[in-house]
Design brief:
Elements (H helix, E strand, L loop, with lengths): L2 H31 L12 H21 L2 H6 L1 H28 L6 H23 L3 H26 L1 H5 L5 H30 L9
Helix pairs in contact: 1-2, 1-6, 2-4, 4-5, 5-6, 6-8
């Protein structure tokens, strides 16, 4: 990997780390200050939020290490150990997200949140099985997809914070929330698929012709 590419990836993960740190702090603030609806116990839904966000910490911290070729090459045992922790935390976080998404009061975001939690769980299971069967090409691809889904939670919160600038043209608040929910799920997956499948397939078409 040349120096420019290394610096590019370092910058990418630095931006991701900054966004993730903001997401985690904002999420814990939301949990601590959230108004408990009538009929819901203090720890009813709040404990689900807390568990989901707490499990996001190892997922977001481990991801950059797992994608580092140096770690995989020099310390494969560390890569395997962190990989197990990453997949377990992702699976549990996905299960908590499935519950939160399916039971959220805002019905306009219930379908996208539930769907991408289910997709996240599916990607994690496939990545796990691929590693067990030593299909490391498939394992890498589905870990990247699972990470894209995990980061979509960060993107969702960032979109909510900058909603006026990004989706201010949508006047209806419920439609705006539904659009935000779908975009937070679809955009990271589109980026992952472009990187993994679409561009590698299309790239030869743009190479100079050898007539």
């Amino acid at each position: 990997m040349n120096a420019a590419r290394r610096w590019g990836w370092a910058l990418f993960w630095l931006v991701v780390a900054a966004a993730a740190a903001w997401f985690l702090s904002d999420s814990f603030r939301f949990i601590a200050t959230r108004e408990v609806p009538t009929g819901e116990t203090f720890w009813g839904r709040r404990i689900w939020y807390f568990a989901h966000v707490a499990l996001a910490i190892p997922v977001l911290l481990i991801a950059p290490v797992q994608f580092a070729a140096t770690v995989r090459g020099r310390w494969p045992w560390l890569h395997r150990a962190l990989g197990r922790a990453y997949l377990i935390a992702s699976l549990l976080a996905g299960l908590f997200a499935l519950h939160l998404g399916s039971s959220i009061a805002a019905q306009e975001t219930q379908v996208p949140l539930t769907l991408f939690a289910a997709v996240w769980i599916g990607f994690v299971v496939v990545a796990w099985q691929a590693a067990c069967r030593r299909r490391f090409d498939l394992h890498r691809g589905f870990v990247i997809r699972a990470t894209a889904i995990a980061l979509s939670f960060v993107w969702l919160r960032m979109m909510a914070a900058g909603e006026g600038a990004l989706l201010g043209f949508i006047e209806n608040s419920e439609l705006r929330a539904a659009t935000r929910g779908w975009l937070s799920f679809v955009l990271p997956l589109l980026v992952a698929e472009v990187w993994l499948s679409w561009w590698p397939a299309a790239k030869p078409l743009f190479a100079p012709r050898r007539d």
